[in-house]
């Protein structure tokens, strides 16, 4: 009788690309995506991968990472942010934690994968083994703060496995748009009259912007990286900062599944949009616009319409647009898939304090647009 075995690795290269991707059918953030992220060398992150194998085949897998985490990391600038920064200076042992997590700092959700032949009845048991391996691995390395980052509510295995042992807070939901046909006018008809009018006004000077699609951006990497840094600084939230090589490594490792829409005003690169795609879905992964040219030429709305047009042209039915700009995306017809953060501390008192702190640190407390989206989902 065959026996399943656990495997813990610190690189995605411990698994064959085909074996890993087989457990994640339909995912755009593939083995190549994780490999590119490793090779780029995200500062402050170490990666882990947990898997179960049987008879030489990969049955189940989940990625993870480790970092030193400041509790004010995801709080937007303001009064509460300043208070937490003071607390961090006064009480660093309370505010700065060694964190082990399941998920990825650069993925849309916590990817939990199973081989196609694994029955639904067997999956909860495999997840329990993966969770146990994760917790044991973290404890051996001295990581007391455990997190499951962005577990999709659409995958209830997570809640069933950890709800009794972990605390919970709502994470950032994922925006997606079902592409209506047969053309752009068909999409615009699904929007309100006011939104249609606003979109058409913002596209009035579209001819002033040259749009180009490329997979190789190595020759303009400094410009792309600079636009990304501008976007990061404007957001006020810096969970991770992607180094310049990441932007070329993704397209190298993912081939025709990754590409860039580039927005030129004259000879100046005014914006970029990294997208991942397959035969069904377009994932708007990262975007960056020049602080002056972006608003002048309404590049956010233009890039949205370019992506919708691309979906229509390629026959893609889903446009997934990430975890920000909720008010605008709602106006443009997006719906939202809820994600959860599950967390716990190995020691009782810090665990209690973290549960109390989550009421202040939760994302919707600092973002009224997000709060409205989460309220609508209830």
What report would you give on this structure?
The structure is a single chain. By secondary structure, the protein is of the alpha+beta class. The chain folds into 2 domains: 5-173 and 338-377, 3-Layer(aba) Sandwich (Aminopeptidase); 175-336, Aminopeptidase. 39% of the residues lie in helices and 27% in strands. It is built from 15 helices and 15 strands. The protein has helices spanning 17-22, 31-40, 79-90, 92-95, 123-140, 157-162, 184-188, 193-202, 221-235, 245-254, 293-296, 299-314, 326-331, 348-361, 368-377, and strands at residues 5-9, 46-54, 57-70, 96-102, 113-114, 145-152, 167-170, 174-178, 210-214, 258-265, 268-277, 281-289, 318-322, 335-337, 339-345. Strands 1, 2, 3, 4, 5, 6, 7 and 15 form an 8-stranded mixed beta sheet that branches. A 7-stranded mixed beta sheet has the order 9-10-11-12-13-8-14, with helices on both faces. Helix 2 packs antiparallel against helix 10. The longest helix is centred in the middle third of the chain and has 18 residues, at 123-140. It starts with a strand and ends with a helix. The mean pLDDT is 92.
Helix percent band: 25-40%
Indicate the mean pLDDT.
92
Name the CATH homologous superfamily of the largest domain: Gcn5-related N-acetyltransferase (GNAT)
Low-confidence stretches: none
CATH class assignment of the largest domain: Alpha Beta
Helix/strand order, N-terminal first: EHHEEHHEEHEHEEHHEHHEEEHHEHEEHH
* Content-based structural category: alpha+beta
CA-atom Rg in angstroms = 21 Å
Number of helices: 15
Counted beta strands:
15
CATH topology of the largest domain: Aminopeptidase
Question: Which architecture name of the largest domain does CATH use?
Answer: 3-Layer(aba) Sandwich
Major β-sheet profile: 8 strands, mixed
Number of domains: 2
Bin the strand percentage.
25-35%
Q: How would you sum up the global shape?
A: globular
Q: Ends: how far apart?
A: 47 Å
């Amino acid at each position: 009788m065959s026996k399943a075995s656990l495997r813990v690795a610190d690189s995605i290269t411990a698994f064959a690309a085909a074996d890993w991707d087989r457990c994640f059918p339909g995912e755009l953030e593939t083995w190549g995506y994780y490999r590119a992220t490793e090779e780029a060398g995200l500062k402050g992150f170490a990666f882990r991968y947990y898997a179960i194998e049987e008879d030489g085949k990969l049955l189940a897998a989940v990625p993870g990472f480790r970092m030193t985490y400041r509790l004010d990391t995801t709080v937007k600038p303001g009064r509460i942010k300043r208070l937490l920064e003071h607390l961090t200076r006064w009480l660093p042992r309370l505010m700065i934690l060694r964190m082990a997590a399941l998920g990825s700092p650069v993925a849309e959700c916590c990817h939990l994968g199973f081989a196609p032949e694994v029955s639904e009845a067997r999956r909860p048991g495999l997840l329990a083994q993966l969770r146990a391996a994760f917790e044991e691995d973290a404890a051996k390395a001295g990581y007391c703060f455990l997190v499951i980052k962005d577990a999709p509510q659409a995958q209830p295995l997570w809640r069933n496995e950890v709800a009794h042992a972990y605390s919970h807070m709502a994470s950032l939901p994922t925006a997606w748009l079902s592409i209506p046909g047969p053309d752009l006018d068909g999409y615009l008809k699904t929007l309100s009259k006011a939104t249609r009018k606003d979109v058409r006004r913002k596209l009035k000077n579209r001819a002033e912007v040259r749009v180009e699609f490329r997979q190789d951006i190595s020759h303009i990497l400094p410009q792309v990286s600079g636009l990304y840094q501008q976007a990061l600084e404007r957001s006020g939230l810096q969970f991770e900062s992607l180094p310049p090589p990441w932007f070329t490594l993704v397209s190298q490792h993912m081939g025709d599944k990754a590409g860039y829409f580039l927005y030129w005003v004259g000879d100046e690169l005014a914006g970029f949009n990294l997208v991942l795609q397959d035969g069904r879905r377009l994932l708007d992964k990262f975007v960056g616009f020049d602080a002056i040219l972006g608003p002048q030429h309404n590049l956010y709305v233009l890039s949205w319409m370019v992506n919708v047009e691309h979906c229509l042209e390629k026959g893609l039915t889903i446009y997934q647009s990430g975890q920000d700009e909720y008010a605008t995306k709602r106006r443009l017809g997006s719906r939202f898939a809820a994600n959860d953060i599950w967390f716990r501390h190995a020691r009782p008192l810090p665990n209690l304090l973290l549960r109390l702190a989550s009421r202040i640190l939760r994302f919707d407390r600092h973002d009224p647009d997000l709060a409205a989206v989460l309220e609508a989902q209830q």
